[in-house]
Model the fold of this input.
Amino acid sequence: MEIIVEYFPLLLKGAWLTVQLTVTSAVIALVISFVIGLSRLSRHWWVRALATIYLEFFRGTSALVQMFFMFYVLPLLGVTLSPFLAGVIACGFNLGSYGSEVVRGAIQSIGKGQREAAHSLNYTTYQRYRYVLIPQAIPMMIPPFGNLLIELMKLTAVTSLITLSDLTFVAQIIRGQTAMTLEPFLIILVMYFAIASVLVGFTDWVASSIAKRRGMVPVKVN
Amino acid sequence: MQIYTIPFARLHAWQPSQRSRTLTDTANIIEFRDVHKSFGSLKVLNDLNLEVAPGEKLALIGPSGSGKTTILRILMTLETLSAGRVIVDGDYLWHEEKDGKLVDASEAHLHKMRNEIGMVFQHFNLFPHLNALQNVEQPQILVRKTSKVEAREKAMELLGMVGLSDKATHFPHQLSGGQQQRVAIARSLAMDPKIMLFDEVTSALDPELVDEVLNVLRQLASDSDTTMLTVTHEMNFAREFADRVLFFDKGQIVEAGKPEDIFTHPREPRTRSFLSKFISVS
Done:
């Protein structure tokens, strides 16, 4: 027990790093989701083609290998990334590819009537997306984004393999130093679960605050 | 004595080309010249010619699939032409002149032309994420570049005109179909179009809500000098509303005339049989 207490600050530090990795890569993933998702709806074929290549590449290859590539291979090409940066870029790019499908699907699901109304009011393409389609699509994106956010948080565990001392890494250290196996892993399972619960609460809060602003009954996310 | 004869076929061919002159100067606010429209192998409009005077109120009636809605959608630039010319307020709608040649209209040209035209849809198509007031304000601010203060003032005035001042902060899902449609009318009017298109605006409404929308249209028709085209299945309404009624069938105007003529003494058998489903015709 004392051992756990002794290592608790280290575990907290690991949890904090996991949170930082999650938030940073979530921001990257969100930006990519919109950029790639909207590009897939472009009227220019080459924009759609580039976005599709991105999507299929990052969705179709392992996040772990992508991260190793960024951390171990890019330096050989003269680009050195810090472990943190390599980790969040790999996680963000990977989940961003899934997120882009969420963005595209939500926007495409909006009825023809809305596009025609915007068209007849003479909105430009930009205005149609910015003021009509995206605001209506966002509430639909939130539940799948919530799922992806939790996926992303769990994915950050792979960064322990490139020397980042996140939760998983800390558990390995404790195991190595104390020969205890059950306790550290049980503890980090609970900690991952606690972080996930906070993320679920956050997603619910976003969904319900949007619904409230639009005078609607909140949609339950999970 | 010499007799000049023109072969009938040539005479026939000569007439449409006269009509499809390239000049756009006309007193009419809308002209369809030899317009064809097909969806794949389906012919929706077949050599349509139509002239509408400024301020005229037109009712388009006819069986479904007869092409009446397509006319509105072509005017709103939601549907392209297969052939022919459409002139709106002295300018080609779907074409523009470039280096003395008539070419397909650019998006910039269409954008300019759309400013003249407003449309109200069967299913209202209000923006569900905006309340009634914002629905009427936003297009003015974004498209007309009206100041927020002026846009709000005008929106409130128009919501008052359609009898919905007290519903300004309601969202579409909190309004009845009739109320939503009245907001949609206000939203279109806020853009000050010269031409208003009403596409079966009461077809999706419960019967008891139809009148509140038609009353707004009746009032509009009598108060404003906006040109209005309405596609409707409400024959009694068409009769009061319209200066001229067009009966469509199979992509062509079968019969056109004053409402009292069309509704009381339809000349064409097809008109008569269509109308007999709605009203008793002599």
Remarks:
- The first strand of chain B starts at residue 30 and ends at 39.
